[in-house]
Amino acid sequence: MSGVTCKRPVDAIFSGSASRPSRGARTHSANMRLASIALALALANALPTDDGYGEFSNKKIRAREFNLEKAQTAFSDAGFKKRASDGILINEEGTRLSFTVSTGYERFKDILTILKEEASKAGLELIIETLDGTAGFKKVQEKKHDIHFLGFA
Q1: Which of 16, 37, 129, 136 has its CA 20 to 30 A from that of 112?
Q2: In sequence order, what E strands does 8-104 have?
Q3: pTM: predicted TM-score of the whole model, two decimal places
Q4: Beta bridge partners of 128
Q5: What is the pLDDT of residues 24-75, one digit of tens each?
Q6: Dihedral angle at the C-alpha atoms of 81, 23, 70, 85, nearest 10 degrees?
């Protein structure tokens, strides 16, 4: 796991009661330099729209807002209270709040780059790892991933 030696911060941070800054970051970041087709795709996935599943859609599910204060509180509760010189949060032992986001799809590389930039604003380091499809699937099956980003068409 990338830089995490204590209990997995993802469990504390991304549990039902904590904020999810990376998801909200896609929705509430209006940085014009990131305006591209990748941003449009990311926003399309995050905005509350009709997903096309009719009666099987859960209309009550909404993306969480991007809120740096809530993110900081959740990260602090998980023990990440100080920032390193590059702005990434660290705990008392100096362990960085860092995860590797792997994917087996080259087409997600631009989207993940945007998520990485937005996550860093909250003090979260995302290391992007683009694998071929087979290697990505194997990594997940062997449970050797921090976070795996995928989608089925």
Answers
A1: 16
A2: 82-83, 89-90, 98-103
A3: 0.62
A4: 101
A5: 333 343 344 444 444 455 555 555 555 667 788 777 877 677 788 888 888 8
A6: 30
Length of the chain measured in residues: 153
The total of other beta-carbon atoms located within 10 Å of residue 122's CB is 25
Distance CA 54, CA 39 (A): 26
Where residue 123 falls (left for φ over 0; alpha for ψ -120 to 50; beta otherwise) is left
Nearest in space to 61 (alpha carbons), one of 20, 117, 1, 107: 20
CA 30/CA 79 separation, integer angstroms: 30
- Summarize pLDDT for 105-114 with one digit per residue, the tens: 888 888 899 8
Stretch (H or E) spanning 125: strand 125-130
Place of tokens 């809120």: 67
Tokens of 108: 């997600």
